[in-house]
């Protein structure tokens, strides 16, 4: 779902009441664990964590005026989502996450290419998301991103 929020705080205020606590906790876990250099902002109508132009002036190749996206969280219609570009771009990171997930949650992993969906908001594996958040620095993401974009 799209929310007309200009800041992450406004986003949290706009979502359904029953999701505010889980989204606030997810946001805190990510902010507390992302390596230094990522910035939090509204990105694509979601709470986003991006590589700012101050670190990567080229920006996002689809629209260089935008900072390089890395990770987003969103309250969608039927689930809370974590979007992680590093999982999509790095098979080793994907394999690590898929292997670790059952250690934290008994329900089947519901995942797309970069989207991890949580239909039961009380079963979001915060410790696992915290660890996932630590796995890639902005510099590592920039290098991986450039290797993928320039190879296309």
Can you put this structure into words, describing what you see?
This protein has one domain (8-150): Aspartate Aminotransferase, domain 1. Helix 2 packs parallel to helix 5. A 6-stranded antiparallel sheet has the order 1-2-3-4-6-5. The radius of gyration is 15 Å and the shape is globular. A hairpin with a 2-residue loop joins strand 1 and strand 2 (46-51). The longest helix is centred in the first third of the chain and has 17 residues, at 17-33. 40% of the residues lie in helices and 20% in strands. With 152 residues, it is of the alpha+beta class. The protein has helices at residues 8-14, 17-33, 85-89, 91-100, 126-134, 138-150; strands spanning 39-43, 46-51, 68-75, 80-84, 110-111, 115-118. The protein starts with 7 loop residues before the first helix and ends with a helix.
Element layout with pairings:
Layout: H1 8-14, H2 17-33, E1 39-43, E2 46-51, E3 68-75, E4 80-84, H3 85-89, H4 91-100, E5 110-111, E6 115-118, H5 126-134, H6 138-150
Antiparallel strand pairs: 1-2, 2-3, 3-4, 4-6, 5-6
InterPro entries: YdhG-like
Protein name: YdhG-like domain-containing protein
Domain YdhG-like: 19-133
